[in-house]
Amino acid sequence: MTGNDQGLIVEKQKLHQSDIVVKESIQDEDRTMKRQKRDRLERAQARGYQAGVNGRSSENCPYQTQEARMNWLGGWRDARQDLQFGLYK
Hints:
By secondary structure, the chain is mainly α. 79% of the residues lie in helices and 0% in strands. The protein contains 2 helices and no strands.
């Protein structure tokens, strides 16, 4: 093996290691984005629940995006059911 061949092998190893680092970085970003999205939707659901417990109308949903609106309305429905079952007065 010549010195040139060894240099190419070292370069390939470095490139492979940098690919791994880039892939791990992308995976971390994906996890962070999913967590932020989940947190945002959970917050919408919790706010909808509070609105339902406080007797607000479902027409008062403050969210425009379909996902957040669905979560808010789901929380609102859960609260209305809890009110019917007597869990809140």
